[in-house]
């Protein structure tokens, strides 16, 4: 999962600072990475990422639906991080936390 640092950096800078095309490119990278993971929860995350892409391509953005998806993705990602061993476990948990913080800051804005 090579995209941890870049994704976390984007999330910490603020979800609204990303362009739709940058967000979609990042999402597609995560989908490709997660499709190789044999954890059932990873399949759920891929489905949620696909849903997030659909929301981002809509003519009118539904910010509440996007925020809820990002919150869900944060929880799912952190959950996988707790189950994961190895060098990426901390980064997975950090990514989950960054998603949660990004959703919280987006709702406060």
Structural account:
The chain has about 110 residues and is mostly helical. It has one domain. The protein has 5 helices and no strands. Helix 1 packs parallel to helix 5 and helix 2 packs antiparallel against helix 3. The model has no long low-confidence stretch (mean pLDDT about 85).
Concise structural overview:
The protein is mainly α and 109 residues long. It is built from 5 helices and no strands.
Please give the radius of gyration in angstroms.
Answer: 13 Å
- In total, the number of domains comes to 1
Percent helix? over 70%
What is the rounded distance between the termini?
30 Å
The count of β-strands is: 0
Number of helices: 5
Hey, roughly how much beta strand do the residues contain? under 5%
- Mean pLDDT across the residues is 83
Q: Could you name the ranges where pLDDT drops below 50 across 5 or more consecutive residues?
A: none
Q: Helix and strand succession? A: HHHHH
Shape: globular
Largest sheet: none
Query: Structural class of the secondary elements?
Result: mainly alpha
Write the layout of secondary structure elements.
Blueprint: H1 4-13, H2 20-34, H3 40-57, H4 63-83, H5 89-108
Helix pairs in contact: 1-5, 2-3, 3-4, 4-5
Spell out the key features of this protein.
109 residues; mainly alpha
């Amino acid at each position: 999962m090579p995209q941890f640092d870049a994704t976390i950096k984007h999330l910490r800078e603020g979800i609204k600072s990303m362009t739709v095309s940058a967000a979609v490119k990042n999402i597609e990278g995560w989908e490709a990475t997660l499709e190789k993971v044999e954890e059932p929860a990873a399949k759920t995350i891929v489905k949620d990422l696909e849903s997030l892409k659909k929301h981002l391509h809509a003519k009118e953005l539904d910010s509440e639906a996007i925020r809820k998806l990002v919150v869900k993705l944060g929880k799912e990602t952190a959950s996988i991080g707790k189950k994961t061993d190895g060098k990426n476990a901390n980064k997975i948990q950090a990514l989950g936390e960054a998603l949660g913080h990004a959703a919280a800051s987006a709702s406060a804005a």
